[in-house]
């Protein structure tokens, strides 16, 4: 049962490593977007500190969106997707493996560099663990929801734009609770409620999104 | 074993064929014939369950393939028009992944032997992007030697881009599969030296 899951996970991580330029582009995009804000709104520390959680979260969300269309595109073009759909293993299983590999290669680096960028925006050091935790819980949700959108827009002309229109509204709750967690920690009211909601969202997305994604893939390859 | 009844295929808003029926028994080799665009590939995709028919039913061992999808896919080997080869991976990595993804337990040695047998002993570790069309086709065909116990082989234009010797080898492998009680369903516009004469189904006869 796990052999397909592990085979897909191993292959996608290997492909991410061989095509690491793509991964670095996503990461560079995240860093540059965050660095643009001090130029735009002025380098006033109080102001930067106030907008830091939102800026970091929106940048992480856009970086995720930037690479989402790659999730199935290559496999769709070269016929691998058809072969995977003909596997006797449940499709939701290898879809989960693909999203996991996608998160490890694009979400995790973003989570890892976020604390450094937060310091650049003068975020309190006490709020850094909450920022990392909120991103670590939230970015997998973005990947899971985005995978459904990527599957639905597969093979369409201008699919990238449509994908953004489709999934950005779905990202809003994640953004609210993710950035909200850091703000709550800064204001001293505690981030536990926000983080628990993000955790619940992740559990729900993990349970439902792979099935929806598998169904969408069967429709788009029909 | 494989029964297709009253099959109709809709592509966009055009009906490609209808009332198509076929029956495939153990040991049979079936060639799907017909001019370009008549729906040969569509028929193969319907039979594999990748596409849904507009009407009609497909049964494997008496059970509808939609109801018993996983059991059917365990016995099916489909090689489509796209060779399912990733450019960044070597032929060996591609082949091992293809087998593992399909759910076949195959070790690296058997994969290597299959690739050597199909004539890629010098390209085992090259990235697939430097391979020629024929060599890429061979990588995907190597699965035939590894997933042989799968009873039904559905092959879409397997001879495309292959040289004369490779065509003869493949034709022999298909004949052997049929002789061992397997079934092969393929499309081709080429004459291949099969040991047994393939039965021919002309999709054009059912065109709308």
TrEMBL record, chain A:
Required for the export of heme to the periplasm for the biogenesis of c-type cytochromes. It is a multi-pass membrane protein. GO terms for molecular function: heme transmembrane transporter activity. InterPro entries: Cyt_c_biogenesis_CcmB, Cyt_c_CcmB_bac. Pfam families: CcmB. The chain crosses the membrane at residues 21-39, 51-72, 93-121, 127-154, 161-182, 194-217. Belongs to the CcmB/CycW/HelB family. It is found in: Cell inner membrane. The gene is ccmB. GO terms for cellular component: plasma membrane. Keywords: Cell inner membrane, Cell membrane, Cytochrome c-type biogenesis, Membrane, Transmembrane, Transmembrane helix, Transport. This is Heme exporter protein B. It comes from the Bacteria. One of its GO terms (biological process) is cytochrome c biosynthetic process.
TrEMBL record, chain B:
It holds the Pfam family ABC_tran. PANTHER family: ABC TRANSPORTER I FAMILY MEMBER 1. It comes from Thauera propionica. It comes from the Bacteria. One of its GO terms (biological process) is cytochrome complex assembly. Keywords: ATP-binding, Cell membrane, Cytochrome c-type biogenesis, Membrane, Nucleotide-binding, Translocase, Transport. One of its GO terms (molecular function) is ATP binding. This is Heme ABC exporter ATP-binding protein CcmA. The keyword Oxidoreductase does not apply. Residues 2-207 form the ABC transporter domain. Gene3D superfamilies: P-loop containing nucleotide triphosphate hydrolases. InterPro entries: AAA+_ATPase, ABC_transporter-like_ATP-bd, ABC_transporter-like_CS, ABC_transptr_haem_export_CcmA, P-loop_NTPase. NCBIfam families: ccmA (TIGR01189), PRK13538.1 (NF010061).
């Amino acid at each position: 049962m796990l052999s397909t899951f592990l085979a897909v996970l191993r292959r996608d991580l290997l492909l991410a490593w061989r095509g690491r330029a793509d991964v670095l582009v996503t990461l560079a995009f995240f860093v540059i977007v965050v660095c643009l804000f001090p130029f735009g709104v002025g380098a006033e520390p109080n102001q930067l500190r106030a907008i830091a959680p939102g800026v970091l979260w929106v940048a992480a969300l856009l970086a995720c969106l930037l690479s989402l269309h790659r999730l199935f595109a290559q496999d769709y073009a070269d016929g691998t997707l058809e072969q995977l759909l003909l596997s006797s293993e449940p499709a939701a299983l290898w879809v989960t493996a693909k999203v996991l590999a996608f998160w490890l290669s694009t979400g995790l680096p973003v989570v890892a560099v976020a604390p450094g960028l937060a310091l650049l925006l003068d975020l309190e050091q006490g709020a850094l663990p909450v920022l990392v935790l909120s991103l670590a819980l939230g970015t997998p949700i973005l990947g899971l929801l985005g995978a459904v959108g990527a599957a639905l827009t597969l093979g369409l002309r201008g699919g990238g734009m449509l994908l953004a229109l489709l999934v950005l509204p779905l990202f809003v709750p994640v953004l609210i609770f993710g950035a909200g967690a850091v703000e709550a920690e800064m204001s001293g009211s505690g981030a536990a409620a926000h983080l628990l909601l993000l955790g619940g969202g992740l559990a729900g997305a993990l349970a439902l999104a792979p099935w929806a994604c598998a169904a969408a893939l069967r429709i788009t390859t029909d | 074993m494989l029964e297709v009844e009253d099959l109709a295929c809709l592509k966009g808003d055009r009906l490609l064929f209808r009332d198509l029926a076929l029956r495939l028994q153990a040991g049979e080799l079936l060639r799907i014939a017909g001019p370009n665009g008549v729906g040969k590939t569509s028929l193969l995709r319907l039979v594999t369950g990748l596409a849904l028919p507009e009407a009609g039913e497909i049964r494997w061992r008496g059970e509808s393939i939609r109801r018993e999808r996983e059991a059917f896919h365990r016995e099916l080997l489909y090689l489509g028009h796209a060779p399912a080869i990733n450019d960044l991976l070597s032929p060996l990595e591609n082949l091992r992944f293809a087998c593992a993804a399909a759910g076949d337990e195959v070790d690296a040695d058997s994969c290597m032997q299959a690739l050597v047998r199909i004539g890629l002993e010098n390209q085992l570790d090259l990235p697939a992007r430097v391979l020629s069309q024929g060599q890429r086709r061979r990588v995907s065909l190597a699965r035939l030697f590894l997933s042989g116990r799968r009873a039904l082989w559905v092959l879409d234009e397997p001879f495309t881009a292959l040289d004369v010797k490779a065509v003869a080898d493949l034709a022999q492998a298909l004949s052997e599969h049929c002789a061992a009680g397997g079934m092969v369903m393929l499309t081709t516009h080429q004459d291949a030296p099969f040991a047994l004469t393939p039965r021919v189904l002309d999709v054009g006869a059912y065109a709308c």
